[in-house]
Structure formats: C-alpha cells, structure tokens
Amino acid sequence: MYLQLDIQFFAQEKTEKATPKKRKDSRNKGQVAKSTDVNTAFILMFVFLLFWLAGRFIVEQLFTIAEFTFTDYLMTELTTESVQHLLVTYLFQAAVAVSPVMAAAALAGIASNMLQVGVLFAPEAVKPKLEKINPIKGFKRIFSVRALVEFLKSMGKISLVGLVTGAVLWFFIDDLLRLGLYSVGEGAVLIGDLIVIMGLAVGFLLIFLAILDYLYQKYDFEKNIKMSKQDLKDEHKKAEGDPLIKSKIKEKQRQMAMSRMMQEVPKADVVITNPTHYAIALKYDDNKMDAPVITAKGVDYIALKIKNSAKHNSVMTVENRPLARALYAQADIGDQVPEDLFKGVAEVLAYVYRMQKKI
C-alpha cells in the first residue's frame, strides 16, 4: 500500500521570511505591525500627565467661565449683538480650557504612531473595497480566532483596569470615608487628585499591556507575511525577468548582431580561414584606420556563412590556419589587429592587393 504525496504542498507552505520587497509592498498597502493599545495608552498617559501638571490652570479656566456667567451675563438682555458677543466669549474661554487637552491627545497619537510605523503614507489602505462590506466576510471576521483573541484581551484589560482603580481607591479609603467632613473645595481637590492618580496608574498599566500587545502584533504580522518557496521563486522571476523570455531576448539580440556582422562581410578586404572551422573578415583603410580592423568572425556554421557571403560578394578568401586561430582568440569584432599579428596580416593583405592589382 502506497501513499501519494503532493510535493507542491511543501512549495506552497509559507515557511520563509518575507523579503524586503514583500515588506515594502505590504507597507505601501498599509499592512504594518501596529497595536491600537499603544495609541490608547499614550493618549491616556499624556492627557492625565497634563491634568497633573496643568490641572489647576484648566480648573481655573472653568471657574472663570462660571464666574463671569453669574456676575456679568446672568441678567444680560438678549439681542443679536449680545448673543454674538456671548458666543464668541464662551468659545474662546472653552478653547483656552480644552486646547491643552486636545493638543496633548493629538501629540500622543502622533508620537505613538511614529514609534510604531514611522512616517507612512498608504492611500491604498483607505481605498473603498466592496469586500469590506461583504456580510459573509464580515461574519467570518466577527467569529474568527482573531476576534476571540481580541475579545479575551479586552476582558483581561477591563479586569486589570478594575483591579488597579480598586487598589487606588483602597489605598485612599481613609480619606474617602472622611470626605463628608471636608469643605466643598477640599472635597473637589481630593476627588480631582484621585481621578488623576487613577488615570496615571491605569496609563502605566496600559503601557505595559500595550508593549506586550505590540510584540504579539509584530509576531502575528511576521507570520502573516511569510512567503512560500514558490512565492520566492515568483518574486525572483519578476525581479530578474522570466528565464524563457530572457533567453528569447538574448537569442534575438544574437540574431541581430549576426545580421549586422554579416552585412559587414561584403565590405571586407579579405577573409582569413582555417580553412573549415574559423573565418575572420578584415578591412583596412589607410586614410581612416591605424591598423586593420576585424569586421566579422566565427567558427563552424558561422564561419561557413562568412565564407559563402565572401564568395558571393567577390571578397578574397585566404587560408592561413595559425593566423586565423590567433585572430579569433585575441581580438573581438570591431577591434584592431593585435600588434604581434601585424606582420602576418600585412603579408596577407599584400598578397590580396597584389592579386587585385591594387599595388
């Protein structure tokens, strides 16, 4: 009894780390390792640190609004001008009181995103996609393993936040029990201090949890962008080009080069042969050239084509085995004849010119 094993299964299994190109493509799509808990923790910490450092200023602004409301505007006659004046005054005072909090929250959001993903502009991530409103896929997302993990994380965070705030209240239980003995101002200060302390304690807790969540998100992201061996091969093909297409391009280039070379054979002065395996076409113009130039060369089939072209175009063919081999080995098409072969080439050209009665 034999078991059939599909080898392609291993090629499709995502076991390889993502390449830099894969990471770049994922980043361009907005797919990065990011934890929303980091944003929440930073915003909470920044805002409550602001309350701790500048809470008195914010409270003073709120009391200022209440004070001029009861002293200056309570009996104001309502007209178009007075309503406009009241609106501008209240908006300005509210902006003064709230703007530090809004600025702290905005700064925290920017800082948390910069720490996680840096500067990222991914317009593709906000493109409208029909699959996002697909009810079937939405149902799958709601009842997926990831959704269950997120639910358990949320319940755990709520429980820990409850424990931390309860611990802070327990620590100040004596002051809370004496709250009825305090004046209104002292009671407000105590409650305000407790709120700030609880906020900072929860903020520190959430930062710790956010670090753990970010590490998990990074692990999950690395897992999701893993590539299979086939993916690596496909990416390599796209980067380097399909080998079949490249071979066809090279073949076409060779054909074009061959065609250009064969066009130069009729213009040559002589073709030096092996006689059967090598053929080298030479051209010399004493008015334009310092030395003879190789215009075509080849072996076997190409050599035969060069000799046939020379025959059909009345270009002399001279057999010189050592010289043909040396020229083929030491120079390329378009090169001048090497100096150590000048004598042999000069003798051949002299013979050709003599036969053609050029000298």
SSE order and pairing:
Elements: H1 8-12, E1 14-16, H2 20-28, H3 36-73, H4 80-117, H5 135-142, H6 145-171, H7 173-177, H8 184-224, E2 227-228, H9 229-240, H10 243-264, E3 270-273, E4 278-283, E5 293-299, H11 301-312, E6 316-319, H12 321-330, H13 342-355
Parallel strand pairs: 3-6
Antiparallel strand pairs: 1-2, 3-4, 4-5
Q: Care to give the gist of this entry?
A:
The protein is α+β, with helices and mostly antiparallel strands and 359 residues long.
Q: Which short descriptors sum up this protein?
A:
359 residues, alpha+beta, name from scop, 2 domains, four-stranded mixed beta sheet, two-stranded antiparallel sheet, elongated
Question: What would you say this structure looks like, in words?
Answer:
The chain is an alpha+beta fold and 359 residues long. The chain has two domains: 29-127 and 160-226, no CATH class; 245-355, name from scop. Helix content is 67%, strand content 7%. It is built from 13 helices and six strands. The strands form two sheets. The protein has a four-stranded mixed sheet with strand order 5-4-3-6, sandwiched between helices. A hairpin with a 4-residue loop joins strand 3 and strand 4. The mean pLDDT is 79.
The fraction of residues assigned to DSSP E strands is: 5-15%
Report Rg.
Answer: 43 Å
Number of domains: 2
Total count of strands:
6
Give the termini distance in whole angstroms. 89 Å
Strand order of the largest sheet: 5-4-3-6
Shape type: elongated
Structural class: alpha+beta
Order of helices and strands: HEHHHHHHHEHHEEEHEHH
The quaternary structure here is: single chain
Helix tally? 13
Instruction: Please summarize the sheet with the most strands.
Output: 4 strands, mixed
- Helical amount among residues, as a percent range? 55-70%
Question: pLDDT average, as an integer?
Answer: 79
Which regions are unreliable across 5 or more consecutive residues at pLDDT < 50?
A: none
